[in-house]
Structures are given as structure tokens and as C-alpha cells.
């Protein structure tokens, strides 16, 4: 399973960070630094796997961004690579030719997409169209709710406020 | 007024310095805090959810969190937002919970309630948000409270929530493993679903359950035929829209199915039988031109090798790995090597077939691949291929990156040791290894090499090794990458084999053994001047630490003794003496002492004793090395190191620096060995003692130590207390002159030197004797400060162990060179009792005028009957106004024929010194040979000099 997923820029700035295991905040920062330094210092054309502590780091560079996933020792590195690739493809379709700025300014959308694809460190959906549709549908719901206020949202989505749910 | 999220991000990105960036975010956080406070204070009225900036603020907080700012104060706001009825706020609220919450958060209970409501909501999107959040943050309590709701989604949700519920279960089970059993029927039911995602998540969940609780595996195994059917369908179907990646139908699902089959087929011949066919189909039908296809093949191979598969299938799998190994892509080669590593224990011949390819991978540009290949090469090494494999590994050591070097050195040393065709070959290999990567090697590699050199059969071998060493030194010493251990070995070799180095290197042995001698420099004859110059350059070498300098000093003085005077021009001697004098004013106590001593020793007056003192070190026995090895591994364990990760290495180095007392005097490698083998002083002591025992086994050093048979009774090597008593027995009783020689010999041969100065020469006596010796020398250089006997108790860090018989003051670094010596009084006889004669010696502590160290010694009295005296206990009691602190006794037995002593230090403190006397009583116990225990008490205040 994926233990954490980082998206870092070539300068080492974190663009997305998702943790699928309990890690203390301080430790997170340390791991982030350590892993980022390792990945960024790798010359190109080498293999995309690194052994790190007891785990493996699978990374891939897309334009100016590095997508870094940490997986267990027994996991399939190649599938992890495909998972990362699928995520990038969905981002690409969603943002219509994704670039780093899209992710910087819409990091929350990227997280929403990620949550539709990977859950608890495992792939939850491999059909990119399904992922896209689910994210779009929720975006629309949110947009309607934003426009029409709480009541409108409830009506549009069939959300019925549970007793006591709203003041 | 709050700005938009994109404005904030733009502004932060535009900041020129990190400082400005921080300030901007802190500012924004403060604004958000105010907004939250106002809201909480009820100043802002209106419907919940209509607050205009909640969503925006939360997103900004997430941004701040990602930039590394603390946002824990906003966790409550996340909970509130997740409770919002409008979807956009709920969505952001849950996202905030997933990102901002740390596990210690006390808001979890509040979240549980909210999650429970949302899991029961009518909208599948709200359910799915709640499931995703639960999958991210579930604690054990939450798992117990909410698993019923998750189970409901698992049983009858739409695909959107069903797949998420399945994966959420992984987190729930991890938090609360007792839930697993209840879910088994439901989970197996997922496999019959029609959507890929649900089947895949179901398979994933089953895999996790099997991993977490192997007991459930039998209950899953009846699903094997169904899993095989699913897999077959995927393999044969081509071009399914939206699922096909790289001409493979849903590789994610296939990979999960294969992983699950692997777990279910392990040690289960029935299940293995059921999946054989489909595995063969996967292995033959998968298109290996893309990553996805290779990923499936990789899983299939692992599955085939792990289950009880048919022979043909295994061959197929091994062949696939062979193809992988030849692949151009690094990734594929990496996974091939990785798989081979897994199976190398089970199926060595299959892996050995790919030996050449694997060896070639050692030279790959990619460190991940090299690392895997190194493991394999090591596993494949045996006595038939050691020559080429060791060569490859040494070559790898040259190019290895910093963090790999330790592992490769350990591998080479271990392989060389296990499969070496000859000792000479092993020594040669280790020498080359040390020359290229000595600094990454563990200390026992250096130690092993010294052992091999001392134990090498025949002078020729030793001489040629020494020549090679000297040659390597001159090749490397000026390079910036010169390895410190090489300097050490070379200095030692030059010292030990100075005479041999002045003649030509012996011819290479002829015969069948020729081929096993690695190519390397042979060296040439060197003039004494060259040798002295080389050693002189080592003293100022940039890599030379205290240890190397110490060894070099010893080597210089040995060189003067070993090369016949006829070959030594006067100017060379003068140069050498000049080098010896380098550290006369060194701040390092140990070097200073050695410098002064060796300079004195090199003078004409002491020419007659020099040869004895600087005699060659006798060959170590394998037995002694084994014992040292044991010490070393015990020390390594204590340091938490293991064979490959050299955790202990840095400790060793620290020790060396910190304990110059032991290592500076690396005259003999013994000292170094013992030090290398220590994790603490106690072990240093024991190691030293063992060395002493080894010496005793050899029996050849006894003469050297000057005592002669009568003065140096054989140590009782079998005696358990040998660790304490043996050494003292061995060295203790020498008469004054003999004792001095002993001390010097110990210094030069380093027979026991580390830390505690183990060959405790009767405490201060040795130091005094040594002083006497040097005082007799010309110029009376013996600086009293350095040779002053210092009581063991002055150096608690050195005398802590049970064997810490009074640290030989002469070799122990005193805290400050300027410290005046504690004045020692002559040994006074206190009383005789039974077979024992008990003496006392008082030494005042210069640093603390109120305390003194009393050394109690029990000797065999002349009238005592023959036979060992055992059970000796020396105890003291002091008057109430005084305090006392005991050091451990040197032993409890005086062996048959030995004069003793058994001794013990007690540090007495008399705060009222001057007005009240040192009042001490003694209690002595012993069991004479053939007798029963006898106890004697006496007031010995009179025997102590009252000052």
C-alpha cells in the first residue's frame, strides 16, 4: 500500500502531501525533507525506485513536478508507478493540460481527485472516466450550494438537513 | 477584508524572502483567527453556511499548513464545517479534517458523531466524503463505533460508496483488528460484484485481512477458483474501454488478484493447483512491451515462485526474470534483481544461471540496481568463484556511493573470509579493500588483516605483504582520497618489518597458487632513509589521527631497533629522533608520553634493552582472534549495530578519539584491536585481559615481560576470575627493574594498553619504576607529570569495569598535564595472617587534600604452605567522620606458586584531615589450600603514614 504521496517541485517545495499512515507532524516534516532531497538529487535516466528505510520510494518526474510515493517492501513498484501515472492523467484531463500552477492554485481540487482515486493507501478506482465524473458531480453540487445557500443546496442535492443539523 | 485564496497564493509566491513569506502567512492566519473568533462570539448573525468566507478561510488554512505553518487551532473549525448542511462547506470541512488533523487531536470524538450522521445520509456523495475521511483518520474507538455503518455500505451501497467502504475497512481493521472476523462473509461477497472497482477493492481488502490475520486465509481459499476465473477473463479480454492501460486490461485489478492468489496459494497445494493454469496464461499472454504488462508479469512471477507451482511454470517464471534482466529499462531490471533476491535462498541454481548478467549490474550507473546486485553477488559467491566475485565487489567498492560503501566492505570481508583459497589471498584482498575504501570498513576488517599478516606462514609472505603495504602507502598517501586505515596498517607494517623492507621483495611463489594472488604492486627495496621519511610524513598527514600518530611513533622506534646499526647512517637516526621528538610538547597526553619515552629509548644508553622491548609481536593465534572477535561482536551488539549497517563504526571512531589513552599507544596492534573491540571500558578491560591470556597461551611473551619464570608465574587462564586476576598475576610481582621493563614492553607492544591500561602493574608502582628507568637515562627527560602514577579512582571512566585494577598510572592520561602527582608513600606491611601477608600503601590525591587512595595488597607469605589461596576478600572500614569508596578487587585467588598479590583500592576521604587521623580497619578473608575459611580483622591506622 502507499504510505504517503508527495508532489514536490523541482525546487523542493511541496505542492501536495497526503499521508495514509499515522505519522507525527514533526516526523512528517523530517521525512518530507529527507525524501525530497533523495529524489531531487537523483540524476535522470536512472530507475524510478529508491530504497529508503524499510520501504521503497517510487517517484516519477512530470515536467517540473516530482510525484513521489512511498510503498511497502513487498508492494509492486511498477504498479505504483502506474498508479501515479493514472493520477497525473486524471489531473491532466481535469485541468485540461495540467501544469504546476494549476496544482498550486487549486490544490484542494487535486486533493479531491486524489481522494477519488486512492483511499487508505490503495487504489479505489482505475476507470479515469468514473473518477472524472464523480469529481465533476461533486463540484457541481458544491457550486449549486455556494450559489443558492444552504437551503438551495439541500434542495438541489436531495440533502435533507438532519434534525438539529442546522441552527 | 479577506482576500481570495488565489490572491493569497500569488502574494506568497511573490514574496522575495522566506521571512516575508512567513510574515504574509502569519498575517493571514491572524485574520482568519479573528474571523473565527467573531463567528464564535455570535457577532456575525445569520444562517450557518451563509458566512461568506468560511470555505475560503479553510482553504487558506490548508495552504498555510502545506507551507509548514501550525494550524492546530483551526481543527475545531473543520469539525464545524463538516457539520454544515451545504455541500461545499462540508466537502472543504472534511478535506480540512483529513489534512489538518493530527492523531492526538481531541476533536476526534466530535467528528465521530458527525461521521455517523453523514454515513447515514441519503446522498451517496456525502456518504463517500464521510467514508474517505474515516479511511484517513479512524481511531480504534471510531472504528468500533462506526463499523456497522460502513458494513451497511459494503453490503448494499451504490458502487461509489461500496468501493470506498471496502478500503475504509482496511483502516478500521488496522485500528481495531477484532472486527475482522465479522466482516469475512461480506468481503467475499464483494468478489461477485460487477464493477471492476468493487472487485478490486474487495480483493485488496481480503489481501490486507490475510496479512493482518493469517487465520482467515483458509476461509478465503474457497474463493480461489472464482479469483482465477476473474483473472482469466481479464487476461483474454482485449481493449476494454477506459480500463485498458498499455494493452493490458485493468492492470491494477490483475495485480491485486495476483497478490491475493499469492497469499492464498502459499503452502496450499490444492489452491496452488487451482491457479496453475491461469498463472501460466498470465505469464504467456501478457504483453510485455509496456510498464503495465511488466507489472503484471512481475506479480505473476512472484506468485508462481511463492506458491507450490508446477516445475514447468517455475521455469517459465525464471525465464521471464531472465528476460527482465536483459531489459534496457532500469525499472524492469531493478524488479528482476529484487525478485531474484527473494528466491536466492530457495533456488540458488536458478539464480546462478544469471550470474554474468547480475555481475554486470554491479557496474550499472544506477545505485538502486547496484545495491540489489550486490546482495545477489554476495549470495552467489562460493569457493569456486570467489576470485572473480571478490574482484567485482572490490571494483564496486571503488565506485560505490557513500552510503553503500559500508555494506560493500562488509560483504567483501565476509566473502573473503568464508571462501578465501589461502590466507595470503585473503590478506591481499583485504589490503586492496582497505586501500580503496578502508574508511568505510568496520574495524574488524583492519583487525583481521593484522591477524593475517602476523599469522602468515613464512617470512616471505609477511615480507611481501609489508612491501605491498609500503608501496600502496606511497602510491596513495598524497591523494586526497587516501584512506586512514591504510596509513595505520602501513605504519604498523613498516615498524614490524623494517628490516625486510630494506631488501628486495621476495619473488612471487611459484606453483598452482599463482593464480590466486591478486595483482597488486610488489614494491621495492627501500633505504632506511626512505622509511623514516615516510613515517615522518605520516606524523603530519592530514588523515592521521591520534591513533595513527601513536602507531607511527612506535614504528619509528621499532625501525631504529630492527635495522642493523651498520645500515643506519647517523643522519637517518637523527632524523628519526627528530620525528620522535615531534610530540614532546603535544597537548595530547598520550602522544607526549610516547614521544618522550621513545626518544629516551632510542638513546645509546638503552641500546641493550631496546631489542627486547621492541621485539616483534608474536603471531596472534586464531583462538585469540576468535575471542577478540567475540568481544567485537558483543560490542557491536551493545552499540546496536549489525553486520551490514555499521552503526558501531562511528562509535568506534569516537571511542578512538576520546580514549587516546588506549589507542594513541597503538604501538602494538593489540592495543588497537582491543580498543576496536570495545564498547565500554569494561570490555576494553576484558579484551585486554584476553589478549594477555592469549599471550600466556603462547607462552612467548613472558620472557619479554622481564619477570622471568619466578617473577611471572603463569596466569591461570581457566580461572573464571582471570578477567580480573589473571593480568595482575601475570604482571604484578615483578621486581622493580623487571617491572620497569615490563611496563616499557607493555608500552611498546601494546599488549594491554587500552583505556584501563589493563596490565595493571601494581598500581602506581609501575609508574614509579618507569620513572626510575627513565631517570637513569641521559637527560632525565622523564617528565614526572606524564609518568606520575595516578590512582584508578581518579579516572572513573577508565576504571569502571570489574577488571579495573588500578589503571596503570604511567599510561593513563592524567586530566591535565600540569596536575602535580599525588604523593605516594612506600608500601607498609600491615600484618600477616594465616598464609597471607597484607600490605597497605597510601597515595594522597593532589586535587583533593582530604582524600587518599589506600591500596590493600595481599601476598602469599613466605611461610605459607603450597597450593592456591582462594576466596580472598579485602575489606576496610573507616571511622564515622570519614567516607570510603571501594574499587573492585583485582581478584580473589593467588594460584599455586604465585606470590600474589591480590589487591584492592579504597578511596578514603577524611574531611577533618589535620585534626583527626585516617582511621582505618581491615578485614581480610581467605581460604588456604586444603583449609577452611579464615577471617582476620585489624586496626591498621598505625600502618598508614599519618600526614
What does the model show?
Chain A: InterPro entries: AP1_sigma, AP_complex_ssu, AP_mu_sigma_su, Clathrin_sm-chain_CS, Longin-like_dom_sf. Mean pLDDT of chain A is 87; it is low at 152-167. The longest helix of chain A is centred in the last third of the chain and has 30 residues, at 128-157. Chain A has helices spanning 25-40, 77-95, 100-105, 107-117, 128-157; strands spanning 2-9, 14-19, 49-52, 55-62, 65-71, 118-119, 122-123. Chain A has a single domain, classed as 2-Layer Sandwich (Beta-Lactamase). In chain A, the strands form 2 sheets. Chain A has a 5-stranded antiparallel sheet, sandwiched between helices. By secondary structure, chain A is α+β, with helices and mostly antiparallel strands. Chain A starts with a strand and ends in a 10-residue tail after the last helix. Chain B has 947 residues and is α+β, with helices and mostly antiparallel strands. Among the domains of chain B are: 321-380, Leucine-rich Repeat Variant (Alpha Horseshoe), CATH 1.25.10; 828-943, Gamma-adaptin ear (GAE) domain (Immunoglobulin-like, Sandwich), CATH 2.60.40. In chain B, helix 17 (311-325) runs antiparallel to helix 18, helix 25 (443-455) runs antiparallel to helix 34 (622-638) and helix 34 (622-638) runs antiparallel to helix 38. The model of chain B is unreliable at 636-822 (pLDDT under 50).
Helices of chain B, by number, come to 45
Kindly estimate the percentage of residues of chain B that lie in beta strands according to DSSP. 5-15%
- Tell me the series of helices and strands of chain A, N- to C-terminal: EEHEEEHHHEEH
Largest sheet properties of chain B? 5 strands, antiparallel
Helix fraction of chain A, binned, reads 40-55%
Q: Low-confidence segments of chain A, ≥5 residues, pLDDT <50?
A: 152-167
* Secondary structure tally: strands of chain B: 10
- The gross shape of chain A turns out to be globular
Structural class computed from helices and strand pairing of chain B: alpha+beta
Any idea of the CATH class of the domain at 828-943 in chain B? Mainly Beta
Number of helices of chain A: 5
DSSP strand content of chain A: 15-25%
N-to-C span of chain B: 86 Å
CATH architecture of the domain at 828-943 in chain B: Sandwich
Just name the CATH architecture of chain A: 2-Layer Sandwich
Amino acid at each position: 500500500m502507499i504510505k504517503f504521496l508527495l508532489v514536490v517541485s523541482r525546487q523542493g517545495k511541496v505542492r501536495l502531501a497526503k499521508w495514509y499512515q499515522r505519522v507525527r507532524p514533526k516526523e512528517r516534516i523530517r521525512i518530507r525533507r529527507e525524501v525530497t532531497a533523495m529524489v531531487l538529487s537523483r540524476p535522470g535516466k536512472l530507475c524510478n525506485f529508491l530504497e529508503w528505510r524499510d520501504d521503497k520510494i517510487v517517484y516519477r518526474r512530470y515536467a517540473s513536478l516530482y510525484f513521489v510515493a512511498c510503498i511497502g517492501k513487498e508492494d509492486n513498484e511498477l504498479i505504483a508507478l502506474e498508479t501515479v501515472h493514472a493520477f497525473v492523467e486524471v489531473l491532466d484531463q481535469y485541468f485540461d493540460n495540467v501544469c504546476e500552477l494549476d496544482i498550486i492554485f487549486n490544490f484542494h481540487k487535486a486533493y479531491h481527485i486524489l481522494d477519488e482515486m486512492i483511499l487508505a493507501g490503495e487504489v479505489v478506482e482505475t476507470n479515469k472516466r468514473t473518477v472524472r465524473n464523480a469529481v465533476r458531480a461533486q463540484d457541481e453540487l458544491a457550486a449549486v450550494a455556494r450559489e443558492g445557500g444552504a437551503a438551495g443546496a439541500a434542495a438541489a442535492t436531495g440533502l435533507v438537513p438532519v434534525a438539529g443539523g442546522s441552527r | 477584508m479577506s482576500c481570495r485564496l488565489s490572491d493569497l497564493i500569488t502574494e506568497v509566491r511573490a514574496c522575495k524572502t522566506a521571512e516575508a513569506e512567513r510574515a504574509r502567512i502569519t498575517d493571514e492566519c491572524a485574520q482568519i483567527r479573528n474571523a473565527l473568533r467573531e463567528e464564535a462570539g455570535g457577532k456575525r448573525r445569520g444562517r450557518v453556511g451563509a458566512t461568506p468566507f468560511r470555505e475560503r478561510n479553510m482553504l487558506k488554512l490548508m495552504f498555510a499548513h502545506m507551507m509548514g505553518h501550525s494550524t492546530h487551532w483551526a481543527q475545531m473549525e473543520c469539525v464545524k464545517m463538516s457539520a454544515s448542511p451545504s455541500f461545499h462547506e462540508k466537502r472543504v470541512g472534511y478535506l480540512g479534517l483529513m489534512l489538518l488533523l493530527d492523531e492526538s487531536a481531541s476533536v476526534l470524538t466530535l467528528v465521530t458523531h458527525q461521521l455517523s450522521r453523514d454515513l447515514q445520509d441519503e446522498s451517496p456523495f456525502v456518504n463517500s466524503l464521510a467514508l474517505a475521511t474515516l479511511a484517513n483518520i479512524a481511531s480504534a474507538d471510531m472504528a468500533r463505533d462506526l463499523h456497522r455503518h460502513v458494513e451497511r455500505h459494503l453490503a448494499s451501497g451504490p458502487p461509489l460508496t461500496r468501493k470506498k467502504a471496502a478500503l475504509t475497512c482496511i483502516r478500521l481493521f488496522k485500528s481495531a483488528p477484532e472486527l475482522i472476523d465479522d466482516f469475512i462473509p461480506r468481503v467475499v461477497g464483494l468478489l461477485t460484484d460487477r464493477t471492476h472497482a468493487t472487485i478490486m477493492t474487495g480483493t485488496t481488502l481480503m489481501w490486507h485481512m490475510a496479512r493482518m490475520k493469517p487465520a482467515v486465509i483458509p476461509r478465503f481459499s474457497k474463493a480461489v477458483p472464482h479469483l482465477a476465473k476473474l483473472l482469466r477473463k481479464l487476461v483474454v479480454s482485449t481493449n476494454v474501454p477506459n480500463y485498458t492501460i498499455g494493452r493490458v486490461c485493468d492492470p491494477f485489478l490483475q495485480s491485486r488478484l495476483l497478490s491475493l492468489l499469492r497469499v492464498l496459494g502459499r503452502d496450499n497445494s490444492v489452491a496452488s493447483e487451482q491457479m496453475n493454469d491461469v498463472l501460466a496464461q498470465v505469464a504467456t499472454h501478457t504483453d510485455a512491451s509496456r510498464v503495465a504488462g511488466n507489472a503484471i508479469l512481475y506479480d505473476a512471477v512472484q506468485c508462481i515462485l511463492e506458491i507450490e507451482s508446477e516445475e514447468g511454470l517455475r521455469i517459465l517464471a525464471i525465464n521471464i526474470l531472465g528476460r527482465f534482466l536483459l531489459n534496457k529499462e532500469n525499472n524492469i531490471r531493478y524488479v528482476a534483481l529484487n525478485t531474484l533476491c527473494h528466491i536466492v535462498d530457495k533456488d540458488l541454481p536458478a539464480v546462478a544461471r544469471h550470474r554474468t548478467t547480475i555481475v554486470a549490474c554491479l557496474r550499472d550507473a544506477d545505485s538502486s540496481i547496484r545495491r540489489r546486485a550486490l546482495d545477489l553477488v554476495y549470495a552467489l559467491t562460493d569457493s569456486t568463484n570467489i576470485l572473480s566475485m571478490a574482484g567485482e565487489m572490490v571494483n564496486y567498492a571503488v565506485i560505490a556511493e557513500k552510503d553503500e560503501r559500508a555494506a560493500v566492505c562488509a560483504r567483501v570481508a565476509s566473502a573473503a573470509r568464508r571462501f578465501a583459497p589461502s590466507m595470503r589471498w585473503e590478506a591481499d584482498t583485504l589490503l586492496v579493500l582497505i586501500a580503496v575504501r578502508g574508511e568505510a570498513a568496520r574495524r574488524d576488517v583492519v583487525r583481521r588483516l593484522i591477524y593475517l599478516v602476523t599469522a602468515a606462514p613464512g617470512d616471505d609472505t609477511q615480507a611481501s605483504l609489508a612491501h605491498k603495504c609500503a608501496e600502496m602507502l606511497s602510491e596513495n598517501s598524497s591523494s586526497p582520497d587516501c584512506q586512514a586505515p591504510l596509513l595505520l596498517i602501513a605504519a604498523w607494517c613498516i615498524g614490524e618489518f623494517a628490516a625486510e623492507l630494506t631488501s628486495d621483495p621476495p619473488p612471487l611463489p611459484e606453483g598452482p597458487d599463482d593464480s590466486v594472488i591478486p595483482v597488486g604492486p610488489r614494491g621495492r627495496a627501500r633505504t632506511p632513509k626512505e622509511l623514516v621519511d615516510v613515517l615522518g610524513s605520516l606524523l603530519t598527514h592530514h588523515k592521521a589521527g591520534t591513533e595513527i600518530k601513536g602507531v607511527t611513533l612506535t614504528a619509528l622506534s621499532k625501525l631504529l631497533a630492527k635495522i642493523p646499526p651498520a645500515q643506519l647512517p647517523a643522519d637517518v637516526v637523527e632524523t628519526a629522533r627528530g620525528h620522535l621528538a615531534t610530540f614532546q610538547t603535544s597537548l595530547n597526553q598520550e602522544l607526549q608520553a610516547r614521544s618522550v619515552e621513545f626518544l629516551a629509548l632510542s638513546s645509546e644508553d638503552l641500546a641493550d634493552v631496546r631489542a627486547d622491548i621492541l621485539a616483534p609481536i608474536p603471531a596472534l593465534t586464531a583462538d585469540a582472534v576468535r575471542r577478540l572477535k567475540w568481544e567485537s561482536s558483543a560490542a557491536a551488539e551493545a552499540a546496536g549495530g549489525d553486520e551490514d549497517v555499521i552503526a558501531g563504526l562511528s562509535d568506534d571512531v569516537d571511542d578512538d578519539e576520546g580514549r587516546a589513552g588506549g589507542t594513541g599507544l597503538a604501538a602494538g596492534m593489540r592495543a588497537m584491536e582491543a580498543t576496536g573491540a570495545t564498547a565500554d571500558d569494561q570490555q576494553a578491560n576484558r579484551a585486554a585481559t584476553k589478549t594477555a591470556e592469549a599471550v600466556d597461551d603462547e607462552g612467548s611473551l613472558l620472557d619479554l615481560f622481564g619477570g622471568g619464570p619466578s617473577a611471572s608465574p603463569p596466569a591461570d587462564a581457566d580461572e573464571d576470575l582471570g578477567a580480573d586476576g589473571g593480568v595482575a598475576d601475570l604482571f604484578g610481582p615483578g621486581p622493580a627493574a623487571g617491572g620497569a621493563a615490563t611496563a616499557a614492553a607493555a608500552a611498546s607492544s601494546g599488549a594491554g594498553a587500552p583505556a584501563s591500561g589493563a596490565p595493571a602493574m601494581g598500581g602506581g608502582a609501575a609508574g614509579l619504576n618507569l620513572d626510575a628507568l627513565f631517570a637513569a637515562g641521559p637527560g632525565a627527560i622523564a617528565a614526572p607529570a606524564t609518568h606520575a602514577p595516578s590512582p584508578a579512582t581518579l579516572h572513573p571512566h577508565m576504571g569502571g569495569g570489574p577488571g579495573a585494577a588500578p589503571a596503570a598510572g604511567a599510561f593513563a592520561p592524567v586530566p591535565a598535564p600540569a596536575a602535580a602527582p599525588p604523593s605516594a608513600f612506600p608500601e607498609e606491611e600491615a600484618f600477616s595472617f594465616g598464609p597471607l601477608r597484607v600490605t597497605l600503601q597510601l597515595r594522597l590525591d593532589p586535587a583533593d587534600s582530604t582524600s587518599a587512595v589506600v591500596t590493600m595488597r595481599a601476598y602469599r607469605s613466605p611461610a605459607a604452605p603450597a597450593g592456591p589461596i582462594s576466596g580472598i576478600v579485602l575489606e576496610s572500614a573507616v571511622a564515622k567522620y570519614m567516607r570510603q569508596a571501594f574499587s573492585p578487587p583485582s581478584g580473589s585467588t593467588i594460584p599455586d606458586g604465585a606470590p600474589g598479590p591480590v589487591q584492592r583500592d579504597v578511596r578514603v576521604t577524611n574531611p577533618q584531615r589535620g585534626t583527626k587521623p585516617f582511621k582505618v580497619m581491615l578485614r581480610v578473608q581467605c581460604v588456604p589450600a586444603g583449609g577452611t575459611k579464615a577471617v582476620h580483622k585489624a586496626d591498621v591506622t598505625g600502618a598508614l603514614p599519618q600526614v
